[in-house]
Design a protein that fits this description.
The complex is a heterodimer of chains A (about 250) and B (about 220). Chain A has nine helices and ten strands. Chain A has about 250 residues and is α/β, with parallel strands linked by helices. In chain B, about 80% of the residues lie in helices and about 0% in strands. Chain B is flat, with a radius of gyration of 21 Å. Chain B starts with a helix and ends in a 6-residue tail after the last helix. The chains are: A alpha/beta (about 250), B mainly alpha (about 220).
Amino acid sequence: MIEIRGLHKSFGSHEVLKGIDVSLPKGKVLVIIGPSGSGKSTLLRCFNLLEVPDRGSIKLGDHAFEFREGARISGKDIIALRKATGMVFQSLNLFPHMTALENVIEAQVTVQKRSKSEARARAKAQLEKVGLADKADSYPHKLSGGQQQRVAIARAMAVDPQVLLFDEPTSALDPELVGEVLKVMKQLAAEGMTMAIVTHEMKFAADVADHVLLMDDGRIIEQGSPQEVLHHPKTPRAVQFLNRLHGKSEE
Amino acid sequence: MDDRQIQIIKDTFWPLLEAGVIFTLPLTLITFALGLIIAVITALVRLSDWMVPKFIASFYVWVIRGTPLLVQLFIIFYGLPSAGIILSPYVSAVIGLSLSVGAYGSEIARAAVLSIQRGQWEAAYSLGMSRTQALRRIILPQAARVSVPPFGNSFIALVKDTSLVSVITFSEMFRKSQEYVALYYEPLILYSEAAVIYLAFSSVLSVLQHRLEKRLERFSAV
């Protein structure tokens, strides 16, 4: 499904990604963890080219990109890739001037050129799936953070993406609202949706991930099954990071 | 105030109000509508990557904001005929005022677009929208909401600025009051009358602006 090779990305003189290789087979769930500033969000944002890498290659389904210094990637190709992906953001980013239902309808009509009635029916089905059929006509500011994030998932799913990207989807939520969002994500995983998730929820990662990447300072320092990475890390940096997450002292 | 003065007020109030309704208000509405279009286009060009149009737009805003509207009106109406371009007072007034609204308004529109969080762009892009689609469907509707109060201000300022076009012989309300002053020689009364009518117009528009803001608040938490 997704093949990423030798990805490099710098912001100014700061190199954020220092050669990353990732493969994510269809129907699998990839979880990316690591300390803040490790480059994990940047890596995820390269998946749909919200960040354009400096070097390396990305292949997603039929969409293949080679990045080199000075080479321009066509806007049309970028849009084609994005149509094949959906993204859920830490900062929710629902469209505040549209109701929940309109949020889910929007791209289906604007981007996918579906008829209004078809888009509406699909939007209703998606909202139903995330348990928010009764909130269809609410504007985002009337919804809790957890509800907003579930609408955002419905919005991303409504365009039938081949892969769903989650950038710390629960980090901005109050603790008691995290569960309802994770539940929806688990349900998607169980249905065989291909997903790439940046998160700090280790228990969720252990439950849902097929493959875990642990990043530090722009590199992947550990990867493998949740069992391997979360419970039997090999590098000292990984041990240190995981201990800190679990509130253990560093010794 | 003696009987003669009261009679003058009675005789002039309705014609002045009429001039306001027939000339000042339509001139305000037309120039504001044109100015808005110019403002949005100028703002979008200035936010784009097209270097030459961007330079032209910045140059336009720089010139219009840096010179008095009164002088601009003089150039358009009294100056351009020397270059062979003869425009009626009405057309000159519309051009002068719209260009002014457009230049100041473009800064409002630009600031409004820039005030929309980057996450809104990213959400639109992540759904496969082009820049144009994101602008039209996601960013501009929100920017419009943000820019209602400042545009309301410039609209009210424009009602008053229309009085400037009296100097290019366009017989809107203020020029009408000048004509009455020449006739009756009661400047305090007649100019105050005009002021009261301007005040009434601005007040009504303020109320309308406030209502529009209230209406748009329904989808906004702030």
